[in-house]
Design goal:
The chain is mostly helical. Helix content is 86%, strand content 0%. The protein has 2 helices and no strands. It has helices at residues 2-28, 33-61. α1 (2-28) runs antiparallel to α2. It starts with a helix and ends with a helix.
Length: 65
């Protein structure tokens, strides 16, 4: 079960990186401010999910002890 949460955590962390890069490209090419705002909101949400998943994974595995 903990390997499932580890995989899920890595997946969400990858999604955070993808959304961050998309937001940077949107900003660099002078894209819509509304799109940048939506990407930032999505990134913050994904980061919150990633933190929760990291905590659950650490709890399930005993925190590395």
């Amino acid at each position: 079960m903990s390997s499932f949460f580890t995989f899920l955590t890595l997946l969400v962390m990858g999604l955070v990186a993808i959304v961050l890069v998309r937001g940077l490209f949107n900003m660099a090419r002078g894209g819509s401010g509304n799109t940048s705002n939506k990407l930032m909101q999505l990134r913050v949400l994904l980061q919150a999910i990633a933190i929760v998943l990291i905590m659950v994974t650490l709890w399930l595995t005993g925190g590395g002890r």
